[in-house]
Each structure stands twice: as structure tokens, then as C-alpha cells.
Design brief:
With about 160 residues, the chain is mainly α. It has 6 helices and no strands. About 85% of the residues lie in helices and about 0% in strands.
């Protein structure tokens, strides 16, 4: 059973959308009986752990990326080569801004970590709504609700 808890936690930290189904499938293939909480607890704990790390480190990560861009520009200038900055208005960036404007804090906090992956989604939420005190608690509540829903679907279908 520790095996399922460990892998549930690991899958929950990165790709939460498929973690429940993967753990349930492994248990079914192995013929091991697995309970509702044996899937819900480790995957949800992994998601919350990863969300906390990336959400609260997002300022540091964004500052580090900006410093790297500035260093690349200065290096190119010092070498006498042309610096070609990375495009800022990509199709994905425009889509994220449109989503932010349309669905707001609630939509971003539920959709970004779920579909982009927990680390990237947490950074996106922090970038757009990090100044709101309710952003991280909303992310936790939505992840718990989604995890509960996924486990319920798994056990209703099987």
C-alpha cells in the first residue's frame, strides 16, 4: 500500500489530471484492493505540496528569468552581437490573458493548475492573482474538490 501512496503523491505533484486514474489502474492490474482514501489522500497531498512550493516561489522564479534575459542582452551587447529578445506576445500568452479577462480569478485558479500541470498552473495563478489573499486557498479548495470528484467517478464506474 505504501507503493500506491508514494506514487500517488509523486503523480499528484506534477500531473494531477491523470494521477487518480493511474493509481487505480495499477492497483486493478496488480489485483490489490484499493480504497477511496488510498487514492484521494496521496494525490491531493502531492498536489497541495507542489502548489505551495511553486506558488510561493513564483516571484523568485520570475525574477530569476528576468535576470537571465537581462544578462543575455548585456552579454550580446558586450560581444557586439545582435540580441534578439524572446517573443512576449505569443499565442499562448494571448490566450492566457483572454482567459484571465473572461473567467477571472475563479476560472484561472481551477483551470490553470488542472490543465497546465500543477507547477506551471501555480506560477500562472501567482503571476495573475498573487496579490489576492484568496488565490492560494481557492486553488487548494478547487484541487480538493476535483480530487474528490475524480475519486467518486472512479468508484462509481467500477
Amino acid at each position: 500500500m505504501v507503493y500506491y501512496y508514494t506514487w500517488g503523491f509523486i503523480f499528484g505533484t506534477f500531473k494531477f489530471l491523470f494521477s487518480h486514474w493511474t493509481i487505480f489502474g495499477w492497483a486493478k492490474i496488480a489485483g490489490d484492493p484499493i480504497q477511496f482514501l488510498d487514492i484521494f489522500v496521496p494525490t491531493t497531498a502531492g498536489a497541495i505540496f507542489s502548489m505551495a512550493i511553486f506558488y510561493f516561489l513564483s516571484d523568485f522564479l520570475m525574477e530569476r528569468a528576468a535576470a537571465k534575459r537581462k544578462l543575455a542582452q548585456e552579454t550580446a551587447l558586450a560581444n557586439g552581437t545582435e540580441y534578439i529578445p524572446k517573443r512576449k506576445f505569443t499565442r499562448l500568452n494571448k490566450l492566457m490573458v483572454k482567459l484571465k479577462m473572461r473567467i477571472g480569478i475563479y476560472g484561472i485558479t481551477i483551470l490553470a493548475p488542472l490543465f497546465l500541470s500543477i507547477p506551471v498552473g501555480s506560477i500562472v495563478c501567482a503571476k495573475f492573482y498573487g496579490h489576492h489573499k484568496k488565490t492560494f486557498p481557492l486553488m487548494v479548495v478547487f484541487m480538493c474538490a476535483y480530487s474528490l470528484l475524480m475519486c467518486a467517478i472512479i468508484y462509481l464506474l467500477n
